[in-house]
User: Fold this.
Amino acid sequence: MNMQYDLIVRNVNIYNPFLRTFEKKEAAIRNGIFVHIAARICDSAKAVLDGEGRWMIPGFVDIHMHIESSMSIPVRFSDAVMQHGTTTVVADPHEIANVSGEEGILFFLSQDTDLDIFYGIPSSVPSTNSTLETTGGVIGVVEVEDLLKNNRIRCLGEVMNFQGVVNEPDSLISQIIDTCQKIRPDLPLEGHCPKVTGADLSAFLARGISADHTHQTKESIMEKIPNGMFLEIQEKSMSQEVIDCLIDNNFFEYFCFVTDDVMADRLRIHHLNHLVAKAVSMGMKPEDAIYCATFTPARRMHLEDRGAIVPGRIADFLLLDDLSSFVPVMIYKNGKKIENKETPVPVIPEQFLHTLHCRKAVKEDFIIHCQGTKALVNIMSIEPHSTFTTRKKVLLPVQDGKLDYTGYALLTVFERYGKSNAIVHGLVENAMRNKGAIAASWAHDHHNVLVMGTDEEDMVLAQNKLLEIDGGFVTVENHVVTAICPLEIGGIVSSRPIESLGKDLEEVRSAMQRLGYVHDNEIMSFSTLSLLVSPEIKISDKGLVLTREQSIIPLVEEVQ
Amino acid sequence: MNMQYDLIVRNVNIYNPFLRTFEKKEAAIRNGIFVHIAARICDSAKAVLDGEGRWMIPGFVDIHMHIESSMSIPVRFSDAVMQHGTTTVVADPHEIANVSGEEGILFFLSQDTDLDIFYGIPSSVPSTNSTLETTGGVIGVVEVEDLLKNNRIRCLGEVMNFQGVVNEPDSLISQIIDTCQKIRPDLPLEGHCPKVTGADLSAFLARGISADHTHQTKESIMEKIPNGMFLEIQEKSMSQEVIDCLIDNNFFEYFCFVTDDVMADRLRIHHLNHLVAKAVSMGMKPEDAIYCATFTPARRMHLEDRGAIVPGRIADFLLLDDLSSFVPVMIYKNGKKIENKETPVPVIPEQFLHTLHCRKAVKEDFIIHCQGTKALVNIMSIEPHSTFTTRKKVLLPVQDGKLDYTGYALLTVFERYGKSNAIVHGLVENAMRNKGAIAASWAHDHHNVLVMGTDEEDMVLAQNKLLEIDGGFVTVENHVVTAICPLEIGGIVSSRPIESLGKDLEEVRSAMQRLGYVHDNEIMSFSTLSLLVSPEIKISDKGLVLTREQSIIPLVEEVQ
Assistant:
């Protein structure tokens, strides 16, 4: 046997998930794989790394996240996230799929990255159906069959259409689940089950959907885990009572940490390591928190070739100075040190560029014509701490045949895929308090062009500028563009480095704040006014949508 | 939602693996799946089962076993094993593969059974190579590629060829592993690693082989589990110190119970339930022992559709009167009650019948011709408590040109696949003490015809009778056939019920004992004298084989 190793790591405390402890051992690596772990390894090696007594843990594994939330493409995302110690992700590319269909997914799949990126098949593209929203792509049974051939597909992404799953055996989502179960019977089916309980939860589980990454409480955990649901805990679920519940019930085997959506500005600072640090600061033992960010997520996705520092597993590892911050001092992927670098950006195929197929707006586009003297209208009222909206009905004056919406913001949707060229209006409460406009093509999930404003000229300027930069974000104040964040690929992501994207995004955020947009996360609030699966009233190119009823209602209900 | 269920089970204590406790709950089943578990289920159902306060646990899952060890075919095996509460197995069909190649495996796969039978791909058919043994079938890369298309294939079966795995990248086993990893990267690779430790164990693991079902000790467990090996604990490993080690280290997540080889006579009495009962009697909590016979084996094989009584999993369950004997009072498979029955036997294809292609023996076949007056010969000495043999050299007299082996038994191998028609001799110590003969075609792993005897006429009779019944076991005493166990399919299994097979086998066993065969398991001892991967000296149609060296040695070393 050739006992020459590529690398031996000495003088480290190695994390062992099976004993849930650290051990003072040495690790030998060959061909990117851990091949031997022992108290002392005497064989020769091409290189030796002195860990200087540091903690050695596996690279973090993030199994529920969306690369598009970072507004970047896989190569850029990889560069950013590896620096925080995330070495494997399972991404659900449902944003790029909404814009570009399967070709968008294949474009993501085609990119070479240091980060191991596996994918879930987006299960809800479009999020509802073509009666309620126009999208650039659709993921149907044919696309699912094709994608399932690829071994980098590791799950069916967050299934959310409860009615379609439970009560409609012929719905698209039912057909997609059937297809997955037939072709890859052990493919994990991931769910999106917020506030789903009792018989409804059982109905989801009965269909084979066995994980949930949405917001959890102590009560939801005590119902979901004993019913066999694997929980993917994201930061918004990390209340003290949730962490205590997971610890007290020794539930470590049945959950993991995930990031879901991390925007470019946050991604500059941290990633999954932040959740591990937070869990430890909340009282979880580091050995358990690490377990749930490495071993359990890998096992959930049947990625048993990683998530532990034992022979036969991929040599992805981090060296840490402490077990509190979880900021890695050194990062190794496939046994090779990862330096802070810029991976070359691939040539972006033309089909993903210049994708905003709507005409330039004119002032007239932002006038709501109306008869009578007063109009009873449906208003979208924003909740400042969530992405939910509530429906209100208010009586607004009509002057010279135009609706006077003073005190509210106009929200106009331009169908952008060149299919109907529809222009649709809505009115929003608790959005902009000041004069100006915001335009974006980053609009979950249909990603049509949203233009919000309190001044018609500013709205024209914002929309025109957005078309000029091929999508992204634009803010306007006093007839001047105050911030832009170009997302030139499909109008939703950019090939620029995360650092640059993050700076742009911070400027957009500041500009939105100056416009009086009051919310915990202004950008997410704005961009989910179009999310038709989130309560209560949202908007698409088809009109105002009551999301629970999945029905379209008119802006103006009644004219007096 | 149609809330009509097929069955509601009430008045039971249901085992929950996630909480590792029993709960007084009710279970609703529809279409063979658990669809709801709750304290009280009020919806209507076609049927209600009153569990009368019994314990309700998932059906047992046995992930390392060989159906051929029962000497029966899948339909018969299913009938027998379901009565003991085993509802899912992962079988390694390497015996039928040795006899009939991939077609033998497909014959097994084709049988409809109540029992869910998944399969591992036999990784070592032949156990060594065609220089050392002749087999009826070979499982090469082409066969592996074909079998991998079938979703009932759940793993690569016990890989044992250490040299081939570790040091020979072009060996057949290396190619088979490469093929599996390429086509089904998350397919579990099962190992056979007795007494493998240190760098050798790491080398096995480094190749991706991550489970072992062989004999364990406290020391082997403390090395294997922390190195990431999943352990499949069979009865011979269940010493008190092993059970204590598993309990004290809270290793439940990382092992399961398996049966490996259970012959027809044992199978009449119990199956995997016996190991659970034994573990509990040795101090393991029932909640933990059940876990390791249901949940962990299912997870190891990525069979996450079973192994727990929660919504979405297959409704395989048992009702028990107590948590000590684990003899099920009622057995349900896919939500339907299983009665003690005889499943119709399929038509056995002609190719699997009349498969002993060797001629009838004559007295001359059992005479060892020799020159000189004395001969130094290699003897196979049987160990009474294991399947190991040791090599001895003894000086035997030669009379009239014939070797006089008085005090030993002659063991003659007839090549039975019609390829060479070779006849090969060995001599055995500690086998038969009395006059008579034993013949069998159930001879691990090559299954050529073995005839052991102390009387030439008896050997002729035994061999001829064996051919007449198309294989199985025959014993002869005083020129009279004393017992037969026909195994008419491939010479290794039968389509008769387990009950009938078990009785035959008991008679063979008794007859062997009367012939003075002294061993803990006479049949297993006899049938592994041909197993070329088990120490130290074994026999095939090619000659006497030193198993460690994988070399052939002559019976007669030297003539004086």
Summary: Chain B touches chain A through 47 residues (CB under 8 Å). The radius of gyration of chain B is 25 Å. Chain B has 14 helices and 28 strands.
